Amino acid sequence: MGGPAPLPAPEVAPGTTGGSDLAWADVLRVVAILMVVLIHSSGPQVKAARPGSWDWIFSAGLDSFSSAAVPVFALLSGALLLGSGRQESLSSFYRRRFMRVGVPTLFWVPLYLLFRREYLHENLSPRRMVDVVVGGLPYYHLYFLFVILGLYAVTPVLRVLIASATRQQLWLTVGIALFVTWANNASTMLLRIGSGAWALTYFLPYLGYFLLGYLARTWRPSRRDAVLAAGVFVGAWLLQLAEVYALLNSHHIRVWAYPMTKFSETTMAMTVALVVVGQRWWPLLVRGDRSRRAWRALAGASFAVYLAHPLLLAWLMRNTSLGPVVAGPRDVAITAVVTTVVMFAAGLVAVRIPVVRRLV
Predict the structure, then answer these.
(1) DSSP 184-244
(2) Whether the Cβ atoms of residue 332 and residue 41 lie closer than 8 Å to each other
(3) CB 17 within 8 A of CB 76
(4) What is this structure's pTM?
(5) What percentage of the chain reaches a pLDDT higher than 70?
(6) Other C-beta atoms within 10 Å of 223: how many?
(7) What is the DSSP letter of 50?
(8) Is-contact 329 54, C-beta < 8 A?
(9) How far apart (Å, rounded) are the C-alpha atoms in residues 32 and 292?
């Protein structure tokens, strides 16, 4: 739900998608980052409002609608990284990926730790700072940096395995990976058994989505497929909300928030459905070279939006009437719109400044 949310993966971040056959990835990157902002704008209200109230239903609806955001980023990363035909040495591969995500990690992790201590006035001792970094949560959204770094680390091995596997074997592998991830997530959230992830293991649950991205490269959905997928997305979203409402009697956020997690059965269905819809209908949003360049620019700024938007959200919620305790549906919507517009404007500027571009 409104906790950690995501950042676009390396080759899904600034840059091109590598060809017109993957132009849908630019559209989905922008859609996914908009969902991220919705999650982080509505999440505090989901936690602060009385469960079952209108304010809670509105915010939970936005949070649930956007639950596929991070899985979509992981899937797009697999589509672009695992399906790349680029020939490069291991040293070249890791050097490029370190510059793309490693350098920003070294900048943003200390920045957010200082932000928490100096601006949010959290009691963060040096030992506590080490603990939260090792735990993979220097700030609520930065866990995804560790996800991407982990996926980068295993990509060369996965490329070799994929080259020698049949599509049937790959589908079986994806199915097993997603099932194991779902079962572990359900047991942890609903039964409260199992252990949590830490920085070096955060990427493991995303391997199913990552590998699925490779298979998604060759999907060519028909109009009928896209209409069916749209129905699946709406149906899974409504079912997810119904599940959340039904679990409210548990009076424990860890239980009733389970359906909105990234690895619930409804979120998995919404993720695949959103990708199918994007693959079929992206030409309706991208018309001509000028439109394509605009989408590509927005997609290129999405990493910067992801990294920096919590700073603006924190300021808005501490210094305006948009705070989580007093905010209603109108203020949640205003927060999301203001954050989106300001952060995309800043991101579009940031990626044009050479020194700053290395950090976003």
Answers:
(1) HHHHHHHS--S----TTTTTGGGHHHHHHHHHHTT----HHHHHHHHHHHHHHHHHHHHHH
(2) yes
(3) no
(4) 0.89
(5) 89
(6) 9
(7) P
(8) yes
(9) 17
